[in-house]
Amino acid sequence: MPPSQATLLINQAVTALGYEGYTQAQLYAHIGSILHYLDTEVNAVSSINVGATGAILEQLCRYGLEAAVEGTAATVLRMPKQWKWVGDFSISGEPFNLVVSCKSFTAKERLLASGSGSALSPTIGWGAFKHASEFSVDRITSYAYRGFVAIYMPEATRGGLTPEALSFSNINGRPFIRAHENLVTDIHSAINAHGRINPRLL
């Protein structure tokens, strides 16, 4: 079976940036450079179709999730097709799983409508969001009511948020808006000895 367009484009970025042979954890550590290359050197030349864009971002997010659970008993599961409206991945939790909802460059209403809708089964949002204006304090509060505990985005976008939005805390008293680069450490540190996510540590 030939590789998908998403895989081909990721491989193109990896080769162009000199990251061949890198592990998933090492690739995720350079996610900013990979996203920048795909945006400026690929998409700017010939627009990447919506389907491929979604698949690329899901794969890059998965690199981070897999790196986070490496060396633990936790597993990253892809959501079945009928549950894609909830999220794209889940990580074994105690007593409920952590839901991960991936979106592309805009959050719009799609991110808010995803997730479990309950703080008992927390959700994190992840995307290559470009518009800081989508993350006002009012909108972030809505995410918190929907059971989200964090949203991960490029540092450049995060830096454009208002001080009030950046200082917004989740139900655990931790920052709600976070940079992509924090994903691996955040999730890894919240996994207990049984390979389960402890939502109170996120």
Give structural notes:
The protein has 202 residues and is α/β, with parallel strands linked by helices. The chain folds into two domains: 5-59, no CATH class; 76-201, no CATH class. The chain is built from nine helices and six strands, in the order H-H-H-H-E-E-E-H-E-H-E-H-H-E-H. It has helices spanning 5-16, 24-29, 31-43, 50-69, 110-113, 137-145, 155-158, 163-166, 183-189, and strands spanning 76-78, 89-91, 98-103, 123-127, 148-153, 177-179. A six-stranded mixed β-sheet has the order 1-2-3-4-5-6. Helix 5 (110-113) links the parallel strand 3 and strand 4. Helix 1 crosses helix 4 (50-69) and helix 4 (50-69) packs across helix 9. The longest helix is centred in the N-terminal third of the chain and has 20 residues, at 50-69. The protein is globular. The model has no long low-confidence stretch (mean pLDDT 90).
Task: Give the helix/strand layout.
Layout: H1 5-16, H2 24-29, H3 31-43, H4 50-69, E1 76-78, E2 89-91, E3 98-103, H5 110-113, E4 123-127, H6 137-145, E5 148-153, H7 155-158, H8 163-166, E6 177-179, H9 183-189
Parallel strand pairs: 3-4, 4-5, 5-6
Antiparallel strand pairs: 1-2, 2-3
Helix pairs in contact: 1-3, 1-4, 4-9
Strand content: 5-15%
Largest beta-sheet characterization: 6 strands, mixed
Mean pLDDT: 90
Low confidence ranges: none
Question: Element order, helices and strands?
Answer: HHHHEEEHEHEHHEH
Number of domains: 2
Task: Please state the structural category.
Answer: alpha/beta
Task: State the distance separating the first and last CA atoms.
Answer: 39 Å
Rg computed from alpha carbons, rounded to a whole number of angstroms: 16 Å
